[in-house]
Amino acid sequence: MKPDGKKPGSKPAPLSDFLCFAVYSANLAFGKAYKPVLEQLGLTYTQFIAIVALWDEDNQTVGSLGEKLFLESNTLTPMLKKLEAMGLLQRQRDPEDERQVRVSLTPAGRSLREQSLEASLNDSTGLSPDEFVQMQKAVTRLRDNLLKPSRREK
């Protein structure tokens, strides 16, 4: 038996059998579903999740925000600069540790919360509330398991 459970010499699995493709294509579908709301807010999906993370915990370091969003600083910093130029957040050096940059929402960034209340796509998923929670936990566990080897390398 090969590692994928197929017998040697058997036909490769079709694309539809790949879990990675199911997750990837679901992510694309989420992007399409969020598009009208994001266009209304004038944000990309990545900008939106950064704002949501700051709604959850305002005034955090760029490093901690990057960890939560699974983004490297070379991706995160330009995005934060753009959000700052849009007037949605401010970045400033931490007075207690000049090496750290803290990010906090402006009143305009906080007010987006009310404008984006319809951004929840729970109903669009077709999942019951219990199924939704189970799916979210399963995908989170999958992500965390996939990241374990890279965390050990650091």
UniProtKB/TrEMBL annotation:
Subcellular compartments: Cytoplasm
Signal peptide (UniProt feature, chain positions): none
Gene3D superfamilies: Winged helix-like DNA-binding domain superfamily/Winged helix DNA-binding domain
Any one Gene Ontology molecular-function term assigned to this protein's record: DNA binding
Entry keyword annotation includes Ribonucleoprotein: no
GO biological process: response to stress
Presence of the UniProt keyword tRNA-binding in the record: no
Annotated HTH marR-type domain residues: 16-144
Alphabetical UniProt keywords: Cytoplasm, DNA-binding, Transcription, Transcription regulation
Entries under InterPro entries matching the protein: HTH_MarR-typ, MarR/SlyA-like, Transc_reg_Sar_Rot_HTH, WH-like_DNA-bd_sf, WH_DNA-bd_sf
GO cellular component: cytoplasm
Protein name (Swiss-Prot/TrEMBL): MarR family transcriptional regulator
Originating species: Metapseudomonas lalkuanensis
